[in-house]
């Protein structure tokens, strides 16, 4: 099954001024311009999305947002409409990141609503799932993943799920420097495909891209991306350094050669 790997750079609440954003993107663009076998996404803070769009237009890097609200418009002070995101050239949106779940108390039900809205307006969702360290240590990883898949993807059609990217991000590996081993990640990616086979069918499950996320660095990217069921990665810390990000992108590109 040929799935195009996808690398997403999640800048989180960093590089949110025009100067920093410009510096990063203008040095990244020429270094990845020959990469055609990997989808490349940069998700900067909202403050520079439109600015980033102008810099990225015509390049092979697509624009992503880090969050959105599920309503399209109205009295929701401080929230961001997915329609506005689409209107300024955003193609992808990260939903259910563990920082949104843990710090901002987003529930699977809320993420499900956001997911349905994103799909409705053709914004491509990257949905994050993953377990906490205590849950892994108690042997509950698969239960947590199954629950999140059932709740987050509730009532989705086959067409919907085929447009969705899943990011398996064990929370204990995010920003901690502790990476899941390629074998640990692959085991959960296979499990996710089994769940999707039960919910939809094998052809569908085999077509969906599942990224890994959690302290991906240049020195571990190749081993992760060489696993059959890992289709690239969602990268936080290492996406803030152009040279690291380029090495990670190159590892994903090599994994399909
Ligand atoms: C993330 O924020 O999705 C992430 C994986 O971060 P990091 O690469 O820093 O662990």
Short recap of the structure:
By secondary structure, the chain is α/β, with parallel strands linked by helices. It is built from twelve helices and eight strands.
Structural write-up:
The protein is 45% helix and 14% strand. It has helices at residues 18-32, 49-56, 82-87, 98-103, 108-120, 133-137, 141-152, 158-162, 182-199, 202-207, 218-225, 242-254; strands at 6-10, 39-43, 61-65, 92-95, 124-129, 165-168, 210-213, 232-235. It has an 8-stranded parallel beta barrel with strand order 1-2-3-4-5-6-7-8, surrounded by 6 helices. With 257 residues, it is an alpha/beta fold. Helix 1 runs parallel beside helix 2 (49-56) and helix 1 (18-32) packs parallel to helix 12 (242-254). It has one domain: Aldolase class I (TIM Barrel), CATH 3.20.20.70. Phosphoenolpyruvate binds at residues 10, 169, 174-175, 213-216, 234-238.
SSE topology:
Layout: E1 6-10, H1 18-32, E2 39-43, H2 49-56, E3 61-65, H3 82-87, E4 92-95, H4 98-103, H5 108-120, E5 124-129, H6 133-137, H7 141-152, H8 158-162, E6 165-168, H9 182-199, H10 202-207, E7 210-213, H11 218-225, E8 232-235, H12 242-254
Parallel strand pairs: 1-2, 1-8, 2-3, 3-4, 4-5, 5-6, 6-7, 7-8
Bound molecules: phosphoenolpyruvate.
Phosphoenolpyruvate (PEP) is lined by residues 10, 169, 174-175, 213-216, 234-238.
Query: Helicity level, as a percent range?
Result: 40-55%
Instruction: Count up the domains.
Output: 1
Structural class: alpha/beta
User: What integer value in Å does the Rg equal?
Assistant: 17 Å
Overall CATH architecture: Alpha-Beta Barrel
Regions with little confidence, pLDDT below 50 for 5+ residues: none
Would you report the number of β strands?
8
Hetero groups in this structure are: phosphoenolpyruvate
> pLDDT average, as an integer?
97
Task: Provide the spatial order of strands within the biggest beta sheet.
Answer: 1-2-3-4-5-6-7-8
CATH superfamily: Aldolase class I
What's the helix count? 12
Strand coverage percent: 5-15%
Task: Describe the main β-sheet briefly.
Answer: 8 strands, parallel, barrel
Q: What is the terminal separation in angstroms?
A: 14 Å
Order of helices and strands: EHEHEHEHHEHHHEHHEHEH
Name of the top-level CATH class: Alpha Beta
Would you give the CATH topology? TIM Barrel
Identify the overall geometry.
globular
């Amino acid at each position: 099954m040929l799935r195009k790997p996808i690398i997403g750079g999640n800048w989180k609440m960093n590089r949110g001024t025009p100067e920093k954003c410009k510096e990063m993107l203008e040095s990244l663009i020429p270094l990845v311009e020959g990469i055609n076998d990997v989808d490349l996404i940069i998700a900067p803070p909202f403050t520079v999305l439109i600015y980033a769009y102008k810099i990225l237009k015509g390049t092979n890097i697509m624009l992503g947002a880090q969050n959105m609200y599920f309503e399209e418009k109205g009295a929701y002070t401080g929230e961001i409409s997915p329609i506005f995101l689409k209107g300024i050239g955003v193609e992808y949106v990260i939903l259910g990141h563990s920082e949104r779940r843990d710090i901002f108390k987003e529930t699977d039900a809320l993420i499900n609503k956001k997911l349905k809205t994103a799909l409705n307006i053709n914004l491509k969702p990257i949905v994050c799932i993953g377990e906490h360290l205590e849950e892994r240590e108690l042997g509950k990883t698969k239960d947590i993943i199954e629950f999140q898949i059932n709740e987050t993807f509730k009532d989705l059609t086959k067409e919907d799920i085929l447009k969705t990217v899943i990011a398996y991000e064990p929370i204990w590996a995010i920003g901690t420097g502790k990476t899941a081993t390629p074998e640990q990640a692959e085991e959960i990616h296979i499990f996710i495909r089994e769940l999707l086979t039960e919910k939809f069918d094998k052809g569908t499950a085999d077509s969906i891209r599942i990224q890994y996320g959690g302290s991906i660095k240049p020195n571990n990217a190749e081993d992760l991306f060489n696993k059959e069921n890992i289709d690239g990665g969602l990268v936080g810390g290492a996406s803030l350094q152009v040279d690291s990000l380029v090495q990670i992108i190159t590892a994903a590109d090599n994994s399909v050669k």
